[in-house]
User: Fold this.
Amino acid sequence: MLQQTQVSTVIPYFKRFVQKIPNFKKLSKANDQTLMKLWEGLGYYSRARNLKKSAIMINGKFGGTLPSNIEDLKSLPGVGDYTSTAIMAIAFNQKFIPLDGNVERILKRVLYLRSEKAISKENMQISKKFFGLSERASDYAQAIMELGALVCRPTSPLCDKCPIRINCISYKRKDFSLIKKTKKKLSNKI
Assistant:
């Protein structure tokens, strides 16, 4: 539910959802109409369908328990790099830093990444080593994501509240603009 949706928006949806569908077993057997009604307003309805598919797979292949390794997590429908690393860090306290838009924004500013190559997915995965790792992986991953969401905001970053501004090249240069990846246009040629 949190993919591309703010926590404050998700809370009432989540509470209502887990009240009606509290576990993988019930989710795997949930009526599609009920599932969509509970999801209504969050958008990206394929996420709800993938959630149900994942619950079916978790019950069948993993004995009703969420897998605790990244390869098995990625085998679930709709679970990619970001979601799997977020689950590993937050749910299992494993030393992973999820790479979401908030984390990318911090890296772009702190390391002053200014080219297409520098902000490529591959380079961002390497660049996140800047953060290091923590024994409190769950808290640390969430703190970094929150730092990007609440302090290193897309516009008007709150640098005076940032605990890593001393290392931030954008802060030193007073240049907070962000470079975005250009989307390649699909050709209409046959």
User: Anything to note?
Assistant: The chain has a mean pLDDT of 92. The chain has two domains: 7-79, 101-173. DSSP finds ten helices and no strands in the chain.
